[in-house]
Amino acid sequence: MTIAEVAKRYGLTTDTLRYYERVGLLPVIGRTASGIRNYTESDCEWVSYIKCMRSAGVSVETLVEYVRLFRQGPETLARRKQLLIEQRRQIAGRIESLTEVLRRLDKKLDGFEADLARYEENLK
Amino acid sequence: MTIAEVAKRYGLTTDTLRYYERVGLLPVIGRTASGIRNYTESDCEWVSYIKCMRSAGVSVETLVEYVRLFRQGPETLARRKQLLIEQRRQIAGRIESLTEVLRRLDKKLDGFEADLARYEENLK
DNA sequence: ACTTGACTTAGAGCGGGCTTTAAGTGGTAC
DNA sequence: GTACCACTTAAAGCCCGCTCTAAGTCAAGT
User: Fold this and answer.
1) How far is the CA of A33 from the C1' of D30 (A)?
2) What is the band of B121 on the pLDDT scale with cuts at 50, 70, 90?
3) Rg over CA atoms, chain A
4) What is the distance in angstroms between the Cα of A70 and the nearest Cα belonging to chain B?
5) Which residues in chain A have Cβ-Cβ distances shorter than 8 Å to B87?
6) Using the CB atom, is residue A89 less than 7 Å from strand C?
7) A104-109 CB contacts, 8 Å cutoff, 24+ apart
């Protein structure tokens, strides 16, 4: 699979995919005889995972660390699990705080109904 | 209330507060005779609102627009309400997508239990 | 043989959101 | 009066995460 195909499949640009590989956020992708990246299905799964975690705001740095541990093999399983648990905790926290904001916005919107009604009453 | 007090109260730096004011994200804060910012309670409410929205990822630009409309008076009430509704929609979407990510992470963590158990079995 | 177009690299550039710097003023403590 | 510290401004700088540029290679089509 070429970089362009992978980019299209996951809605990333080829620049971003090369950037991710360069900083160690993806495994080094195999090349054809002429040096062109050839993504395997397993590479694609990494792309999918990374895209998902980035969309949730997990930093490039954190994900690089995860990939680094993965490359070291099964003796890092426990630490990787800890990393995931920590990421999970952070995302759950983020959801909670966003839910708070939502509540606040809803209250504010309630106030708007009243203000707006009053304002339109005065216009008459 | 001085800028330092407000900064402490809301967990922002004085730099950030000045920056917010400069770009139009807060009303222009009144000054004492010698030119020192003097925050009113109403200013503080703005700080609180802005901090809340920024924490939810609403862009500075969007918030500036909201503040701009507010300053124009009650004839912009309807448009401000529309802005808030749009912000609400985006935040709700964000919560949904984070919830998705959480589910995915949980699945991955399930896999880890199995892998880890298998690995430790092999160590024996 | 030549054009086209997708790929390659290293490295520079960009946008958002602060954050720091430089240079200066004002008010209180000794 | 002078040391000190919090405040002021305009402008430059920084970090993250891409994004773009320049210069070049390769393979297929005509």
Assistant:
1) 26
2) confident
3) 22
4) 12
5) 105
6) no
7) A104/B52, A105/B84, A105/B87, A105/B88, A105/B91, A106/B88, A108/B84, A109/B81, A109/B84, A109/B85, A109/B88
Q: Which nucleotide is nearest to B35 (CA to C1')?
A: D8
Q: Name the residue closest to C25, CA to C1'.
A: B34
Show pLDDT as tens, one digit a residue, over chain A (124 residues). 999 999 999 999 999 999 999 999 999 999 998 889 999 999 999 999 999 999 999 999 999 999 999 999 999 999 999 999 999 999 999 999 999 999 999 999 999 888 888 888 888 7
Q: What is the pTM of this model?
A: 0.90
Look up residue B34 and give its two tokens: 């010698």
Q: How many domains does chain A have?
A: 1
Do A115 and B74 lie within an 8 Å CB cutoff? yes
pLDDT in tens, B59-113: 999 999 999 999 999 999 999 999 999 999 999 999 999 999 999 999 999 998 8
Length of chain A: 124
The domain that holds A88 is classified in CATH as 1.10.1660.10
Does residue B31 approach strand C to less than 7 Å at its CB?
no
Which domain, by its residues, includes B57?
3-123
CA of B35 to nearest chain A CA: how many angstroms apart?
33
Number of helices (H), then strands (E), in chain B = 5, 0
Note the pLDDT of residue B123: 81
CA separation for the pair B64, B19 (Å, rounded): 12
